[in-house]
């Protein structure tokens, strides 16, 4: 189960201000400040010029200079990642269901999927880029999808195939149809595993999107912005892109966590 | 008396990689309407297979399984089941869990009547006020009580209990035995209880069937004289001691450790 900060105020009837000054909010902010100070010190103590390593204080000027690009490129990266992820969810769920319910399909498809997943996706990028020349949006979405559907398919299939027989039998003994058992029991029972995999898939999808954006010529998105920083020896820009990517990743991750709370909150144990 | 459950010459074998594994062999069991039969026997002798046959979850290779005068060909809504593992849907409240069978079995009850029935059963098993709790908030014994309510909610004619008290501690188990008697009085059913516990079998049932080792056949049938509700003191009478002795001996025979 993922760590989810408890944003509820500690005292009943507490205000919003109180919630914002709670430990759950302050602790991660403090950790981030410590991290940035440490980073700044590291660069300063070693006397590194920013072509070796940019320091946090180099970043605001980079954002100020290119903010327009960050917005448009960030949006490009974000929507393509999300579309790729949605595809991964649809295909992953479908494959997971097939493999979860049919032993034959599981035996048949597993080696294929494992092999597919073992191929480093960086090597697939040039192939895809050549296959669909110029289709940058399509290629990027395809990479995001290819890199992220595997954990979803595997965890859903495991969730379904390890369902204790009693769960099935309580409905089957009453004459319930397979479809009823799936909707009422198997699907909800698998949701915690599904969301666990989705959290892994979110960050993987970002990697897929960026691989394509960086490698393919005339790319767009934050990956392309990173690449242009490299070409122009604008090192603070490269670091600024990395931080922007991290921020987007955090945002998407916590959106998934919020969805998990809504749909599979029951699986969470009370603390203690 | 009318036999509610009749098992006639049932043979069954599981198909395994090493060929067929016979589990039941010419099994004969009969349970009268309103009767309560306990089935005991060595581990792995096919007791659970028997429950699955009565529930219609499996078909026998040979012989007939009849419930209410009809040959069982598939699952039927007049059967209620409770297992050793009292599985609950964790995303539902206890009340919603208990009402689950009513979503499958067609019933004329309105939503309000369904709730009333579920709450009545909760009262009956001593879980008053627990309807809104989540399964994770309940202990093993409480979950088993809730599981019993779920098995009874659609007023089944036949209640199949597959070692429901096997995983509970001794005190909780004895508590639940007494609850069972109360339930049987208020909600009459024809019962089949699979158990490993000989004291449990003579305390709850009015007939105890001893199965032989796999492939199981009916080896011995013991009639328990004092039927109906009874208290735990009944387990410490000379009659009870004698019955337990007979059953223990029969189990040893079944295991091949004693001569008949």
TrEMBL record, chain A:
<feature type="domain" description="ABC transmembrane type-1">
    <location>
        <begin position="74"/>
        <end position="256"/>
    </location>
</feature>
<dbReference type="GO" id="GO:0055085">
    <property type="term" value="P:transmembrane transport"/>
</dbReference>
<feature type="transmembrane region" description="Helical">
    <location>
        <begin position="235"/>
        <end position="259"/>
    </location>
</feature>
<keyword id="KW-0813">Transport</keyword>
<dbReference type="Pfam" id="PF00528">
    <property type="entry name" value="BPD_transp_1"/>
</dbReference>
<keyword id="KW-0472">Membrane</keyword>
<keyword id="KW-1133">Transmembrane helix</keyword>
<feature type="transmembrane region" description="Helical">
    <location>
        <begin position="140"/>
        <end position="163"/>
    </location>
</feature>
<feature type="transmembrane region" description="Helical">
    <location>
        <begin position="78"/>
        <end position="101"/>
    </location>
</feature>
<dbReference type="InterPro" id="IPR000515">
    <property type="entry name" value="MetI-like"/>
</dbReference>
<feature type="transmembrane region" description="Helical">
    <location>
        <begin position="108"/>
        <end position="134"/>
    </location>
</feature>
<feature type="transmembrane region" description="Helical">
    <location>
        <begin position="194"/>
        <end position="215"/>
    </location>
</feature>
<keyword id="KW-1003">Cell membrane</keyword>
<keyword id="KW-0812">Transmembrane</keyword>
<dbReference type="InterPro" id="IPR035906">
    <property type="entry name" value="MetI-like_sf"/>
</dbReference>
<protein>
    <submittedName>
        <fullName>ABC transporter, inner membrane subunit</fullName>
    </submittedName>
</protein>
<feature type="transmembrane region" description="Helical">
    <location>
        <begin position="25"/>
        <end position="45"/>
    </location>
</feature>
<dbReference type="GO" id="GO:0005886">
    <property type="term" value="C:plasma membrane"/>
</dbReference>
<comment type="similarity">
    <text>Belongs to the binding-protein-dependent transport system permease family.</text>
</comment>
